[in-house]
Amino acid sequence: MAKRPKTTAKKIVEFALSKKAEDVLLLDLRKITSMADFFVICSGASDVQVRAIAEAVIAGCKEKDIKVYHVEGLGSLTWVLIDLFDIVVHVFQPEVRQYYQLERLWGDAKIEKYDYDQGSKVVK
């Protein structure tokens, strides 16, 4: 893992955006839990896009020597979780994301929203 988890998390956002991930959020959890420093949450419109986003994140991490500790959900492709230890990536299909509402559950986190066309902005 990189010495600067936020820099790594932003790189992971770039990997997801390279496959046109939608509604990409970076949640800074450092002040509210020791479970992880950051969540990257994003959506893909179909199982094909969810797979493409997840595979881009995994391949990008491998290329940058960022260790992927565990991957779940590549069989169903409704919610893929990629565990990088300090950073956890969640790639959802929209209806599953709406059901679990992780961004609401972790609503106390500082949240940055990223868009494929417009860069980033802090929303909370």
Put simply, the count of helices is: 4
The tally of structural domains comes to: 1
Tell me what the CATH architecture is: 2-Layer Sandwich
* Beta-strand residue percentage: 25-35%
Instruction: Report how far the terminal alpha carbons are from each other.
Output: 26 Å
Count of strand segments: 7
Q: Give the mean pLDDT.
A: 92
SSE order: HEEHEEEHHEE
What is the CA-atom radius of gyration, in angstroms? 13 Å
Query: Helical proportion?
Result: 25-40%
Largest sheet: 7 strands, mixed
- Please mark out the parts with pLDDT under 50 across 5 or more consecutive residues, or reply none: none
Question: And the CATH topology?
Answer: Beta Polymerase, domain 2
Reading side by side through the largest sheet, how are the strands ordered? 3-4-5-2-1-6-7
The CATH superfamily is Beta Polymerase, domain 2
User: Could you say which overall geometry the principal axes of the C-alpha atoms support?
Assistant: globular
Name of the level-1 CATH class: Alpha Beta
Which structural class best describes the helix and strand composition?
Answer: alpha+beta
Q: How is the topology of this model organized?
A:
Blueprint: H1 5-17, E1 22-28, E2 38-43, H2 47-63, E3 70-72, E4 79-83, E5 87-92, H3 94-100, H4 102-105, E6 110-115, E7 119-122
Parallel strand pairs: 2-5
Antiparallel strand pairs: 1-2, 1-6, 3-4, 4-5, 6-7
Give a structural overview.
The chain is an alpha+beta fold and 124 residues long. It has a single domain, classed as Beta Polymerase, domain 2 (2-Layer Sandwich), CATH 3.30.460. It contains four helices and seven strands. It has helices spanning 5-17, 47-63, 94-100, 102-105, and strands at 22-28, 38-43, 70-72, 79-83, 87-92, 110-115, 119-122. Strands 3-4-5-2-1-6-7 form a seven-stranded mixed beta sheet. A hairpin with a 3-residue loop joins β4 and β5. It is globular. It starts with a helix and ends with a strand. 32% of the residues are buried. The mean pLDDT is 92.
